[in-house]
Write a structure and sequence with these properties.
mainly alpha
């Protein structure tokens, strides 16, 4: 469950600008603020089922965007490469500095 939540949070970070304000609000409250479906439904005066359906559809949309654009996949690969490079470059201060500069661009 934690892996799914982490993945959805990353996808949300990358693709939130492609969502409607309502979708963003529901996802922020549910995933980032840890609101329950009931709490969200009370805030927006809709049923729990409506909130649940909206969140599930939005998750599917985020996965669809990822399948087309691969932003999270590329980010994840870059992070793993940085970690590998850092472990090999510990003794080379100049190379370490360059790696830090690259990471700051992320």
């Amino acid at each position: 469950m934690l892996e799914k939540t982490t993945r959805v949070n990353y996808l949300f970070d990358f693709y939130q600008s492609l969502l409607t304000p309502k979708q963003r609000n529901y996802m922020e409250l549910y995933y980032l603020e840890d609101y329950s479906l009931g709490e969200i439904s009370e805030n927006f005066d809709v049923s729990r089922q409506a909130v649940y359906d909206n969140i599930r559809r939005t998750e599917a949309m985020l996965e669809e965007y990822e399948n087309k654009l691969h932003l999270y996949e590329k980010f994840d690969k870059r992070q793993k490469l940085f970690q590998q490079m850092e472990s090999k470059a510990e003794s080379d201060h100049k190379l370490n500095k360059w790696l830090q500069q690259l990471q700051e661009l992320e």
